Amino acid sequence: MTQPMTDKDATGNRRGVRRTVTILVAVVIGFYLLAFLQILLMK
Amino acid sequence: MAAASLALASFGGVAHADPHPWQLNMEPGVSTWSHVPYDLNNISLAVCVVIGILVFGAMFVAMFRFRKSRGAVAEKWSHNTMLEVVWTTVPVIILVALAYLSTGGLTSWADTTGSQMTVKVTGFQWKWRYDYVSYMGKSIDKVGFMSKLDQQSDETRQLGSGMDPYAVKVGNENTYLLNVDKPLVVPVDTKIRFVITGGDVIHSWWVPALGWKLDAIPGIINAAWTNIKTPGTYRGQCAELCGQDHGFMPIVVVAKSKADFAKWLSEQEAESKKAPPPPAPFDAAAQSAAQGG
Amino acid sequence: MSYAATHDQHDDHHGAPKNFFQRWCMSTNHKDIGTLYLIFALTMFFIGGSFAMVIRAELFKPGLQLVQPYFFNEMTTMHALVMIFGAIMPAFVGLGNWMIPMMVGAPDMALPRMNNLSFWILPFAFALMLSTLFLPGGGPSGGWTMYPPLSLQSDSLAYVVFAIHLMGISSIMGAINIIATILNMRAPGMDLLKMPVFVWSWLITAFLLIAVMPVLAGAVTMLLTDKYFGTSFFNPGGGGDPVLYQHVFWFFGHPEVYIMILPAFGIISEIIPTFARKPIFGYKAMVFAIASIAFLSFIVWAHHMFAVGLPLGADIFFMYATMLIAVPTGVKVFNWVSTMWGGSLTFETPMLFAIAFVILFTIGGFSGLMLALVPADFQYQDTYFVVAHFHYVLVTGALFAIIGATYYWIPKWTGNMYSEFWGKVHFWNSVVWVNVLFFPQHFLGLAGMPRRIPDYNVAFANFNMISSIGGFLFGASQLIFLGVLIHCAFFSKKKAADRVWEGARGLEWTLPSPAPHHTFDVPPVIHDEELAHGNVHA
Fold first, then answer.
1. Which of B3, B92, C14, C491 lies 20 to 30 Å from B131, alpha-carbon distance?
2. What would be the CATH architecture of the domain defined by C32-530?
3. Residues with Cβ < 8 Å from A7, sequence gap 6 or more?
4. pTM value?
């Protein structure tokens, strides 16, 4: 049995994915930058 | 003298300091502290065996009693709060007990104060260097040497040498890869402080009979102590990957009585005070011949 | 039997792409990408296994018979790098890719194209890494941990660092994909606390990956700059400290080993309830235990450094924190046993591997507890006792879980039943020979044999010979597994039902076997009684 998937649901999912990915990518880039900043500071 | 002390160590009722075939457990060692890892090992092993018997026992009973082929019908429960509380708190209690024992043992190991002797150990690729720094408050000058794998082991271990590792012995004891040309000689019943460092890469100085190992790191001076109770010869190996001959730079510690050690030390100091032989005069003809004309 | 066959699940109107290149190189399908990861992992497993065969062959007798010490070090280093980054981790990613969307009622992963990229990076990264074995100076030989100054003596360092960066990027992208999928694409009604434990375990593992893979990248980059760009992070002559590397590396390294075991915990929590025909005992405790273990994994890293000369306070802190992990881990083991207790048990191949996991992983956990006690660790560190410990948790732990999962889910993937007889032959050979291989290594470590040495004193000869025999036979047994897989995928005539296993619960079992190329294009209705954990009370 299926349940209807409205455009609203799909849009909600799409927005949620984009928000999740943005946050996580920001975190990862942040870690990388921190690491390289630390490398520069300690050089 | 050396043979007699070796015989004493081998047959004098001393616990094995060196590995023996089919050995299942570690040894209590020969220092005042080395019983600590031995005791912790046995106690924690016993705890694990008991827990294992309980848990695996329950599993085997379950596998037998609750087989579908025996007609077992599955229950529906998936909780039991009292049981869950018990098996969370009982492990914590066991862990606290183990932690208490370990903390005491570790704190006593970390205290190098009150040492009566200091030896400096330096790890190189692929040999050790020992330098005697002080003994009984007196600083020692110029007693130091390199200690590397003994020649017979070195020849035997070459790839495809065809030589037999079982033939590398000192007396009745097989010493393949566990013997050196110049061992570290120390006195018994003396708190000896080791200061350990590395000359190129990280090595690790380990003699199981003393109960501990400590890394030899370039740029860092690590410190540990030991107090050996029984005269004898104790063998160990480098315990940190340091390149191709990591497995071929063993450690040998010879513990002598205080009188014997004092005698040995003064002989070494006398040796080092002797003037070195005068350098040979420069022979230009021989030099150019050696260089191929 | 009536699994609510709908027009939608069977109306896979476009199915899989017909073009081979399109289907396998340009895939955006979680099932095909999962298959790619699993085949890649199996290949790397045999390659890493062959390096282990060289190691055990040389260690068969005292004396050096086969390889030079330097090459032996290359073998130990590459064996670990290949097994960890090429076999175990990609296998779990493959299982996650296949099962997570089906388990939560999603049509695919959140970012299907990035999913494809994550996979295809790996064959290139490993080709690069393995090719260093053919360099004039050989491949990396300083251990998979790559401690400086030793690792800086390697001419292959730049290639290995680049390969590791590539693998790290693949893992990070994969982890982002998994989190985005689980948080946003569950079918309505699939609440977080109704998800299968396997999905929870991957959600938590994905956060660990994001947190620590950049740290590894930083550590190896510092090695690279120390060697080629004049920095002195780890060079005392320039004001640096070799121990700094160890701290940074193990801050990655300890969570890494939990990355390799948490999905295994999830798998076991799927298999045992199915074959016990009883719900998992303590579902919420299981989830909470995984989360606690993940959190604790960040504060124990220096237990890999007890022989380094840390300050007393550090030794004590890390000892206590490490011992604490035994508590949630113990809860999990007790819960698995309690799931079996009072059940209605049958012992098909997946269940056999799951039971072996619980017993043998626990043995690995015991040696781990012993290793946590610092004064005892002074005697265990860098000996075969440690080697025995981590092989128990990784081989009889992670690997057995992966193998069990494969037997468990392959009928869903292929639509065919594997040969139960040969599965059991594979199981019994594996479990016997793996113990012959690794159990004696405990004794070797206690007797004083260091690790990473190609030759040893004759006192260690007996157990080394036994271990090597176990190694050869364990390796050979895995060829049986290969045969079972090939037969199942291509030659088996026995068709699998949708609900392959009588006691299986969960959305994936409502789908046909084999699962169509596209599933849950439209979200399913969630019936709590259909789920393994729909009726969660506490």
1. B3
2. Up-down Bundle (1.20)
3. none
4. 0.93
